[in-house]
UniProtKB/TrEMBL annotation, chain A:
Top-level taxon of the source organism: Bacteria
InterPro entries recorded: Hydantoinase_B (IPR003692), Oxoprolinase-like (IPR045079)
Protein name, per record: Hydantoinase B/oxoprolinase family protein
Residues annotated as domain Hydantoinase B/oxoprolinase: 4-523
TrEMBL record, chain B:
Gene Ontology MF annotations: 5-oxoprolinase (ATP-hydrolyzing) activity
Hydantoinase/oxoprolinase N-terminal domain segment(s): 2-172
Domain Hydantoinase A/oxoprolinase span(s) in chain numbering: 196-480
Pfam families per UniProt: Hydant_A_N, Hydantoinase_A
One GO cellular component, as annotated: cytosol
Superkingdom, natural source: Bacteria
Biological-process GO terms, alphabetical: glutathione metabolic process
Name by which UniProt lists this protein: Hydantoinase/oxoprolinase family protein
Length: 547, 669
């Protein structure tokens, strides 16, 4: 079917708008801080084959691969056999998922008795059971990280709101009020997506909607190919490393070999560390997401819709059994650290090909920080995700105090925490002076959060990275500061590892310091006015740093 | 005589009413000192200031002071440990793949941010007392040394208790009597510290600018003999005496779009229409809002230059689609309209000021719905050939001719506005077919019928002088103040009484404030509760009419909330889920005794027909009708040409001028 260019433009923008509305409603009707404040969720419209057509741009990490996890579902429940009122559920990292906390729900879109696509959403759930609340740093396999949901077909009328599947989920999560509410938010987002596509089909005809779904993917592919073609052909290598696996002190290297040839790009992670016993492993879908996000961010303008078409010119490989493609049942909860180093390795490789387009390594770490307390009426769980300073670019200083480039979580207002949690209190939330790497452009500053613990028996769990290995500058830029976490107890300082847990007492003070980003270019070439400004503002306190 | 003056970025509009005589005029704005342009408008209209009894003023002064960072030198004071909240913001990015991302820059530098030792909990109880010694010893000397014009204060949890902020303000005020002090409890007493701090800082930043501007304009008026009432328009759609702006200027931002909506509501009300979708299409953007029963919805928050402002404003969605929006083909071969615009300079290609890129206005010229000889009443000439030339490249890329390309651009511009309308209607569970479409702004009435066709809307109401409706809105705006407060309470049996208690307190505070402004008696009140299920972070507004408040039960509240939740999210929560009230918005309004009546001013006077190049390749002969003298009814295709705007009545639509002076377009096919 041939689309006229205007109808195509209108329909494609309408599909993107529908996906955006899904994303907004997912967040706005959510219950847990991780979804409603941190906005750790995404939404998309898929075609009938499960390929992503349009997405709500929320979290880059989740956007790459909503379609990838659909495959195993479709294999078990062929789309055309689905009836209205039936939806698909999955979170299994070894069936194309990322980690158990990210649960995917797919609603089929029926038009005239036929399935023409899917409305899909994914949300990071605060707690899905497993060995400890929120996150379980001690997990040695995926079973101890939470409830595994293989591809499931759910009949909403029968299985949800009081039905068997919902009751099974509810019985296995520690904060059912929030988790089950977040599932409802996903249901609402998907129902909106279904409705909007059905409205478009009614207004313009189902054939035109189908044709637009295909054309929009082709469009993103065309633009991605044009962007890749502008990169000089060649083989470029970049490397970075995760600090350690949380047990030993050995760094875990991540190595990317990027081959640019004409309009295609391939990335091979051979040379990357073997998988580890702890939860630092990244399922392959996560690796693909991180890689594609790095390439898209560096090479293309931000307005290209991210869908399956944009991924077609990109090929990703990682050895099976490596940190970036582990074997079942390795634990994967903290996948973001290895993924972030994959992002850094790809950026460093691209820096050799297109130095003006890349970003220097930032703190680029997801610090997942969880305080929990078992109270009379059940668990109270606070989990927040922190970024740090961005790296600098050829044209700009790195952004201060912002989430990891692969993620985009907001903070929880301190006043919201004061309302919701009585077992701790935030006493400091501040930028870290001198944490940014110097350079012609400086990195972004990191920040500090300090917590006063108000009740005995509070549990602290965290995973982070770059506590030992600082982000390295590009083209003469200086390194960003590393992160750290300490507990002050009775005048003594207890240092936490980057992947750690501890039982806290009333009166303990926990300080979490997030690192800064690295600089870009020779610090001697820094604009004098910019340097003076940082000095006056106290972001740089040494005259040397300001010079 | 009553006068409304709206200072916009390009033009300053004036509407004056002297008995039944209306004066409508447009003069160029003078961005360096906007009061000059405002005064020029009076002169151009031949209006002696001494004859003006009521002057209502709206301007972009406050907004521009922020956009251009020309506000006052200010300091920011907060709770120890939180000096950086203005820079940390919400830790997220608006553009997720942008490697050069920079956060919106607050209007205060980090070196000008200070801390005081104190802490309250979420109930407003003291955790750590205010360290007055430290304030006197360290803070006040630092503030004195900084030479600040204003100090913004935002302490944690001050929305729950203003005690510490009040005391701090008192101490600073006693030591530094010439420094203005803006405490957050008085400006935005709602929870979420960054949003409250941002609002407070922006208010402190623009306050001296607004004061200076109102002083200069007021002096100039007084010098010319003006002795009438002087009011300023606000973003909530109401006016307040200028003196009230001296206390809190934050509501003066974005008054222009709000004035347009008010003008549209008033004018549609004269024809008995209260359920409206208004759209104001100007040169660079289109503002859309939904009006229910003659009331525009309020949004709890807006933003300027990316910075949040927590104050109730008319709920207006803006999209980058105006007459000057550029038509282009992107790298992937897709036709696009906007968001980039040709602006006022060089403007559309047809303006003949050197613009070569095609715009929506050029598309109208090619199609024939804008006629060079009638533009702005024939006072500005247009270059039709330039419009044609501008479309040649786009046409070639699309594989069509210039006419086809222009038709495509218009359809896409229509689609952009349709999506904006869907944001305020379908996305909020409202069916646009239940509303009349009210287009205004210079470019609105040209596209209204096509937009209505896309949305299934069958009635359009075009107010007279649609290009200056904002100035009319000023004249017809009531006195309004909206109080937003955090009052968190569970929706249980105690909630109705707690609501009644809160309402009574808000009412007596509002009455005192209005009395203080010389606005006694005749006050109307409206209460809206922001509600959510316990655990959610975003609230849904639920209106509680004054009449319903006395007998209100918890079950009524729950039912109202669940219905609102279902409308937006397609579900009303699982059975038994608890809900809560988070904040209240309380509007106080004193209505004007009489509403102004205006007629279309003289403009083009051409009759006959003009060729319209339709999208399907046909050339139609449209009847030409001068808007000022049009009465009776006419069937499309027709162009009703006025001084500030042209209404396009396509085939399948008819138009008539009703008794209230509005053009009513109806679909006939």
């Amino acid at each position: 079917m041939r689309l006229d260019p205007v109808e195509y433009a209108i329909l494609s923008q309408s599909l993107i708008a529908a996906a955006r509305e899904m994303g907004a409603k997912l967040i706005r009707s959510a219950y847990s801080t991780i979804l409603r404040e941190a906005r750790d969720g995404s939404a998309a419209l898929l075609d009938a084959r499960g390929q992503t057509v349009a997405q709500a741009e929320l979290i880059p990490m989740q956007l790459g691969t909503i379609g990838r996890i659909f495959g195993p579902c479709a294999a078990m429940f062929p789309p055309q056999t689905l009836k209205p009122g039936e939806v698909l559920f999955i979170n299994d990292p070894y069936s194309g998922g990322q980690h158990l906390q990210d649960v995917f729900i797919f609603h089929p879109i029926h038009v005239d008795g036929e399935v023409i696509g899917f409305a899909a959403s994914v949300a990071h759930h605060l707690d899905l059971g497993g060995g400890s609340p929120g996150l379980n740093p001690a997990a040695m396999d995926v079973y101890s990280e939470g409830l595994i949901i293989p591809p499931m077909k759910i009949e909403l009328e029968r299985d949800w709101h009081g039905g068997g599947f919902e009751r099974l989920l509810r019985a296995n999560v520690r904060v059912p009020h929030q988790t089950m509410g977040d599932f409802d938010a996903q249901m609402a987002a998907n129902a909106i997506g279904v409705l909007r596509v059905q409205e478009l089909a009614k207004r313009y005809g189902v054939d035109k909607v189908r044709a637009t779904m295909a054309a929009l993917q082709d469009y993103s592919e065309t633009r991605m190919r044009a962007a890749i073609a502008a990169v000089p052909d060649g083989v470029y290598v970049g490397e970075d490393a995760v600090d350690d696996d949380g047990i030993s002190d050995t760094p875990l290297p991540v190595r990317a070999t990027v081959t640019v040839k004409g309009e295609s790009i391939s990335v091979d992670f051979t040379g990357t560390s073997p998988q580890v016993r702890t939860n630092l492993n990244a399922p392959f879908a996560s690796t693909v997401s991180a890689t594609v996000s790095a390439i898209k961010a560096a090479l293309t303008s931000p307005d290209i819709p991210f869908n399956d078409g944009a991924m077609r010119p990109i090929d990703v490989e990682a050895p099976h059994g490596s940190l970036l493609n582990p074997r079942h049942p390795a634990p994967v909860r903290a996948r973001m650290e290895a993924c972030s180093r994959a992002w850094n390795a790809v950026m460093k490789a691209l820096a050799k090909a297109v130095p003006e387009r890349v970003i220097a390594p930032g703190f680029d770490t997801t610090t997942s920080f969880c305080l929990s307390h078992l109270r009379q009426h059940g668990w109270s769980v606070y989990l927040e995700v922190y970024g740090g300073g961005f790296g600098a670019t050829a044209e700009s200083d790195g952004c201060d105090g912002v989430d990891n480039p692969l993620s985009n979580c907001s903070n929880t207002p301190v006043e919201a925490m004061d309302q919701d949690f009585s077992f701790f209190r935030v006493t400091d939330y501040a930028l870290r002076p001198d944490s940014a790497g110097g350079g012609a452009h400086r990195g972004g500053a990191g920040f500090v959060r300090r917590f006063e613990i108000l009740e005995d028996g509070t549990k602290l769990a965290l995973y982070s990275d770059r506590f030992r290995r600082a982000p390295e500058g590009l083209f003469g830029g200086g390194p960003g500061a590393t992160g750290w976490c300490e507990v002050q107890r009775d005048g003594q300082r207890i240092d936490m590892r980057s992947k750690d847990q501890m039982e806290l007492r009333r009166g303990d003070i926990v300080t979490l310091a997030l690192g800064g980003g690295a600089g870009y270019g020779d610090p001697a070439r820094r604009d004098a006015a910019a340097a003076a400004r940082d000095f006056e503002d106290g972001l740089v306190t040494t005259a040397a740093g300001a010079a | 005589m009553r006068v409304g003056i709206e200072v916009g970025g390009t033009f300053t509009d004036l509407v004056a009413l002297d008995g039944s005589r209306a004066i409508v005029t447009k003069v160029p704005s003078t961005p360096r000192s906007p009061d000059v342009g405002a005064f020029n408008a009076l002169v151009a209209g031949g209006i002696p200031p001494a004859a003006v009894t009521d002057l209502v003023h709206g301007s972009t002064v406050a907004t521009n002071a922020i956009l251009e960072r020309r506000g006052a030198k200010i300091a920011f004071v907060t709770t120890r440990g939180f000096r950086d909240i203005l820079f940390l913001q919400r830790h997220d990015r608006r553009s997720i793949y942008d490697l050069r991302y920079a956060k919106p820059a607050p209007p205060v530098r980090r070196r000008d941010c200070f801390e005081v030792t104190e802490r309250l909990d979420a109930q407003g109880n003291v955790v750590l007392p205010l360290d007055e010694g430290g304030i006197v010893r360290d803070l006040i000397p630092a503030l004195a040394a900084g030479g600040y014009a204003a100090v913004a204060i935002c302490l944690l949890s001050s929305y729950a208790s203003p005690a510490h902020e009040m005391r701090l303000a008192e101490l600073i005020g006693a030591a530094l009597p010439d420094v203005r002090i803006a405490p957050s409890y008085a400006i935005a007493p709602e929870f979420r510290e960054f949003e409250r701090a941002s609002t407070t800082v922006l208010s402190a930043y623009v306050q001296p600018v607004i004061d200076g501007y109102l002083d200069r304009f007021g002096d100039k008026l007084a010098g010319a003999g003006f002795a009438g009432r002087f009011s300023v328009m606000q973003s909530n759609g109401g006016r307040l005496p200028a003196v009230a702006m001296r206390r809190n200027a934050i509501t003066a931002l974005f008054s222009g779009p709000a004035a347009g909506v008010v003008g549209a509501i008033r004018q549609a009300g004269r024809s008995g229409r209260g359920d409206l979708i208004t759209f104001d299409m100007g040169g660079t953007s289109t503002d859309v809002s939904l009006v229910q029963g003659g009331e525009a919805a309020l949004a709890p928050e807006t933003e300027v230059d990316g910075l949040p402002i927590r104050t109730p404003v008319l709920d207006i969605v803006s999209v980058g689609a105006g007459g000057g929006s550029l038509v282009w083909i992107d790298e992937g071969g897709m036709l696009r309209v906007g968001p980039r615009s040709a602006g006022a300079d060089p403007g559309p290609a047809c303006y003949g000021r050197g613009g070569t890129l095609p715009t929506v206005t050029d598309a109208h010229v090619v199609r024939g719905t804008i006629r060079p000889e009638s533009f702005l009443g024939g006072t500005m000439s247009l270059d039709a050939d330039a419009a044609h030339r501008a479309f040649q490249e786009v046409a070639a890329k699309l594989g069509t001719d210039v006419r086809g390309a222009a038709a495509a651009a218009i359809r896409l511009a229509v689609a952009n506005i349709v999506r904006a309308i869907q944001l305020v209607s379908t996305e909020r569970g409202r069916d646009p077919r239940d509303y009349a479409l009210v287009p205004f702004g210079g470019a609105g009435p040209l596209l209204a019928a096509e937009i209505a066709d896309e949305l299934g809307i069958s009635e359009i109401l075009v107010p007279p002088n649609p290009g200056v409706i904002s100035a009319l809105g000023l004249l017809s705006a009531d006195y309004v103040k909206v109080y937003g407060v955090t009052r968190r309470m569970m929706l249980d049996g105690a909630a109705p009484d707690a609501l009644r208690t809160s309402e009574a307190a808000l009412r007596s505070a509002a009455e005192a404030e209005f009395r203080d402004l010389g606005l006694d008696g005749g006050l109307e009140y409206a209460l809206e509760a922001d509600m959510r299920f316990v655990g959610q972070a975003f609230e849904i507004p639920v209106a509680i009419e004054e009449a319903a408040l006395q007998g209100l039960t918890a079950a009524d509240l729950a039912e109202r909330f669940t219905a609102a939740h279902r409308r937006v999210y397609l579900h009303g929560g699982e059975p038994g889920r608890k809900a809560e009230i988070v904040s209240l918005r309380y509007s106080v309004r004193r209505r004007l005794d009489t509403l102004p009546e205006v007629r279309e001013r003289d403009g083009a006077d051409r009759t006959g027909t003009a060729p319209i190049r339709a999208a399907d390749g046909r050339t139609l002969e449209a009847k030409l009708v001068p808007a000022a003298t049009f009465s009776g009814a006419i069937a499309g295709p027709a162009l009703i040409e006025g001084y500030s705007s042209t209404a396009w009545v396509p085939e399948g639509w008819s138009a008539r001028r009703d008794e209230a002076g509005n053009l009513i377009l109806r679909r006939t096919a």
